[in-house]
Amino acid sequence: MFKESVEALKRENLFRSFRYIESAQGPRIILDGRRVINMCSNNYLGLADHPLLKEAAKKIIDEYGVGCGASRLVGGNNILYRELEGRLAIFKETEAALVFNSGYTANIGILQGISEKIDVIFSDRLNHASIVDGIILSRVNFKRYPHKDFKALEDMLSKEDRAKKKLIVTDTIFSMDGDIAPLPDIVELAERFNAMVMVDEAHATGVLGKDGKGALNHFGLKGRVEIQMGTFSKAFGGFGAFVCGSNELIEFLINTARSLIYTTALPPSVLASNIAALNIVESEPTIRQRLWENVEYFKKGLLSYRFDISESETPIIPIILKDNELTMNFSRMLLEEGVYIQGIRPPTVPQGSSRLRVTVIATHTREDLDKALEAIVKVAKKLGVE
Q1: How far is Cα 301 from Cα 292, in angstroms, rounded to an integer?
Q2: Of 203, 213, 299, 364, which residue is the catalytic one?
Q3: Number of C-alpha atoms within 13 angstroms, CB side, residue 138?
Q4: N or C: more exposed end of the chain, with fewer CB within 10 A?
C-alpha cells in the first residue's frame, strides 16, 4: 500500500529517515557512533545538559517518581505546575500562564480552544506547521498573508467586516529562515482593526529581549498582545510548552483546549528541570551574550564566502541551496567532514528553497565554529556551490 509512495519520495529526494544520537545534546555529539560538531540543534543556550537541570530532575524523581499518572484535570496536576506557571506569568509579564506538553499541542490546543471566539484568522504564510494544523482544527475561516508583508495584511484586514472577531497569528522568530516578524507593525494593525494577536515565541523565548523574555519584550510591546505561546524545548533545554495571557484566557483554555484536557500531564522531573532552566535564563545573561557573539562570528564567516543566508537575524541561519538533491548531498558530505547540519526540503520549506538549516548555540567554541565553516567551504567547492 505504501511502497510506491515511499519510492516516489526517494526519487524526488524528499525521503526522510532517523539518525540516532548516543550522547547528551551539546556542541559536539555522538551521532551513529561518530563524534561530530552539532550545528542543527535548537538548544540555543546549551542548557540541555546543564548540571542544575539534571540535579533538579533527579531530586524530584526521588520525591515524586517518574510519571503523573493522569491528565491534569483528572489526577495528574502535580504541585510543580503551580510554581512553574506562576513564574512564567511573571517572566512573560502577563496575568497567568498555562503549561502544555509540547509546542505542537499548545498551538493546536490554543487555536482549537478559542475557535468559538474567532470569525477569521490571518496567518503568516511561513508560520510553523503546528499553527497551520491548529487553524485547520479550529475550522475557522482563515487567510494567509505573504511572509511578513504587513501591507498585504492591512489590505486583508480592511476588506473584512469590522464587526467580525479577528485574530492575527505569527511566529516571532521563523524556524526555517531565522528572521523576525515585524511585530510593531502587526500590533498597530491589530489595534486599528480591532483584532487580537497571537504570537509563537518558541524560538524567541530565552533568546530575544531583556533576560530572554522574548520578542514582545524586545520590541517593547508589553500588554499589547493577547496570546503568547512559547516552549521549554529550545533555549530552555527541556521539554513542554506554555501559553501566557489574561486570567480569563487561561481559565477558558483549561476548559476548551482538547490537547490539554485529554493528555497525560508532564512528568514531575520535566517540570522541575524547566523551573531550573527559567532560573538560569533570568539570572545568567552572559550565556545569552555568548550566544549572540557566536551568531555574529559565524554569520560573518558565511557572508565572507558569499553564502545566501536569506534574511537571518537570529541563531537560525539558513544556507539556501534551492535544489533538493544538492541540499542532501551537501548535508551528507558535511557529515563525512565531521559536521552535522540537516538538509531541509519541502514540504517543511516552500518548493525551490531547500537549504541547510544551521543553528549556532552558546556553548560552541570558536574552534567548533571555525571547523564547521571550513567544512562548509570545502564541500561547497567540491559541489560547485558559489
Answers
A1: 14
A2: 203
A3: 26
A4: N
- Which cell numbers in the block locate residue 364? 560552541
Selecting among 175, 233, 259, 353, the annotated active-site residue is 175
pLDDT of 386 over the 80 cut: no
The CATH superfamily holding the domain 9-38+285-383 is Aspartate Aminotransferase, domain 1 (3.90.1150.10)
Structural contact between residues 125 and 117, judged by C-beta atoms closer than 8 angstroms: no
Q: Domain residues of the chain, as ranges?
A: 9-38+285-383, 51-283
Provide the residue type at 106 as one letter: A
Could you identify the residue written with the cell 528553497?
353
- Residue 175 is a catalytic residue: yes
pLDDT at 290 over 90: yes
d(CA 332, CA 359): 17
DSSP assignment string, 240-276: -EEEEE-HHHHHHHHHH-HHHHTSBPPPHHHHHHHHH
Q: Using CA atoms, how far apart are residues 87 and 266, in angstroms rounded to an integer? A: 17
What pLDDT is recorded for position 140?
Answer: 93
Question: Contact at 8 Å (CB) between 199 and 172?
Answer: yes
- Coil, helix or strand at residue 29: strand
The catalytically annotated residue of 50, 213, 234, 364 is 234
pTM exceeds 0.85: yes
Contacts for 165 with CB less than 8 Å, ≥ 6 apart: 117, 118, 119, 120, 196
51-283 has which fold? Aspartate Aminotransferase; domain 2 (3.40.640)
- What is the secondary structure of 36-59 as a DSSP string? EEE-S---TTS-TT-HHHHHHHHH
Contacts of 180 (CB under 8 A, 6+ apart): 172, 173, 174, 204, 208, 215, 313, 314
56, 276 contact by CB (below 8 A): yes
- Residue 160, pLDDT > 90, answer no
